[in-house]
Amino acid sequence: MAQDFANRTYSAATQPPARKKRRASGSQNIVHHTQRLLRKLFSIKAVYIPILSALVLLLVITTISSLSVDASVQLTHEEWLKTERNNVLNHAKIQKKVIVKSGDSAISSLSTLGFNFNDIVAMQAAAKNIHPLKRIQAGHTFSRHDIDGIIHVYYDIDASQKLHLKHSEQGWQASLEQNTTSHRQVYVQATISDSLFVAASKAGLDDRTTMNLVDVFAWDIDFARDLRKGDSFQVLYQEEYNDAGKVIGTTILNAVFTNQGRSYHAIRYQLKNGKDGYYSLDGKSLRKSYLKAPVKYSRISSRFRTARKHPILGYTRAHKGVDYAARTGTPIHALGDGRITFAGWKGGYGRLVQIRHTNRNHSTRYGHMSKFGRGIHKGVRVKQGQIIGYVGMSGLATGPHLHFEFRVRGRAVNPLHVKHTPAKPVPKAEMASFKKHANALQDNLKLSAQQSEWG
Ligand SMILES: [Zn+2]
After folding, report:
1. Is the four-CA dihedral 293, 295, 300, 306 of positive or negative sign?
2. Are residues 190 and 162 in the same domain?
3. How many domains does the chain have?
4. What spacing in Å lies between the alpha carbon of 188 and ligand 1's midpoint?
5. Could you tell me if residue 331 is inside a domain?
6. Are 202 and 192 in contact (CB under 8 A)?
7. How many Å lie between the centroid of ligand 1 and the Cα of residue 360?
8. Which of 67, 71, 357, 365 is deepest in the core (most CB within 10 A)?
């Protein structure tokens, strides 16, 4: 998704491509003038004029390119990792552009660009085995560029590729083209005085990256309760741009969060199997697992269902959890670390305990208890595996069982579908490679922090 982060301190960085476009079209005027001038002054044979014009255009583009590179050099603490030249020629003569609206077909979109039915049929035939025009989606763009008698039509498939339809003497031809994306690393640090989001935004971090930062540390830090004035963070992240100069995403590479004097590190690392995750400096996964089930020695007597006939109430209603049939008195364990947000009687649930986990997106509920665990009441912290109560049949229950719910952002999800991804550390065989990667990122972070202090 392209986003406009106009309020960022380094928003100037997104400008160069746009500037390039404007100047490039200006450069065509220069070319025309030059052509006329050359004809008048030197009466050079017409054959050489296009060649000379091309040279002039090349000169202009080179000058403009160096100008925009200069512009980005002025930005502190940021580094262009890979500055691939945008295909200036493709952008130089944009004639028409149409955004596919919901309900639009390829025919309606392409006719807006000035193509007749026969053309569109031929384009559809050419695109058929590359990216069928049936598959166009609302919100995506067709653009038409006429260059030297050849018509180019582009359709943006996704952030990384586009369909290119080209009309020349051979008729319509289709090909798939990779978008040139550029990356750069950005370093941001901040100390929290009022709220995380205020501090992050002042430092120039967009909300989406701030959310990602919260997610990375969500298993260790309770961002609603644990944050204190004076907490701080350092983030080294990568910004990805498409060839239109828009940010298409950010990836946190290395982050340090200091909470109440304790520093947590997150290193992004991709394992040899292609999976990536965040690890502490010693290679432990930042993701913590939950217990597979809150009760041992039990069987599932009723599964999660969006609608079912209730055994006692008689009418059909959803079953927003999983029932574990077990003997009365069987201990119930907290699925993960967290805080008790409810411990008491609640209607059909009978004796209910609700835990909001350290990862605040997650909460769990345990119903029909015969009694609560020792010291279990609202507001207390619980550890994973701690006994929070015992199986019973309080409330609406036909027999002793635990009614268990798992909620994500308040919404009940099927607990059996919650991925209990084992939070494995970096495998021993990859530890050397991980350490090397982590050290490089740490050096990068320290250097950026120093530059930030000097700047
Ligand atoms: Zn139930």
Report:
1. negative
2. no
3. 4
4. 47
5. yes
6. no
7. 23
8. 357
Instruction: Choose among 200, 201, 206, 186: nearest CA to 253.
Output: 186
Contact between 307 and 317 (Cβ < 8 Å): yes
CA 365–ligand 1 middle distance (angstroms): 11
Residues 161 and 206 in one domain: no
**Is residue 331 within 8 Å of residue 390, measured between CB atoms?**
yes
Ligand 1 mean position, distance from CA 167 (Å): 63
Residues 308 and 402 in one domain: yes
317 in the same domain as 303: yes
Which residues span the domain enclosing 46? 1-75
Which letter does DSSP use for residue 373 in this model? P
Token pair belonging to 61 = 């583009």
pLDDT on residue 189: 95
- End position of a domain, from candidates 279, 313, 330: 279
Distance between Cα 4 and ligand 1 center (Å) = 46
Tens of pLDDT along 166-191?
A: 998 889 999 998 877 788 899 999 99
Instruction: Give the 3-state secondary structure of residue 411.
Output: strand
CA distances 114 to 97, 105, 120, Å, are: 11, 15, 10
Largest CA distance in the chain: 103
Residue 244: both structure tokens together: 């239109």
Say if 324 falls within a structural domain: yes
Hey, what are 267's tokens?
């290193």
State in Å: Cα 340 to ligand 1 middle.
20
Instruction: Give residue 121's identity as a one-letter amino acid code.
Output: V
pLDDT for position 71: 28
Assess whether 270 and 318 both reside in one domain: no
Distance in Å, CA 322 to ligand 1 centroid: 6
**What distance in angstroms lies between residue 349's CA and the mean position of ligand 1's atoms?**
8
How many Å lie between the centroid of ligand 1 and the Cα of residue 310?
10
Answer whether 382's CB lies under 8 Å from 376's CB. Answer: yes
Q: What predicted TM-score, i.e. pTM, was given to this entire model?
A: 0.52
Q: Are residues 315 and 349 in the same domain?
A: yes
pLDDT recorded at residue 174: 95
Q: How many residues does the chain have?
A: 455
User: Phi-psi bin for 297: left (phi > 0), alpha (psi -120 to 50), beta?
Assistant: left
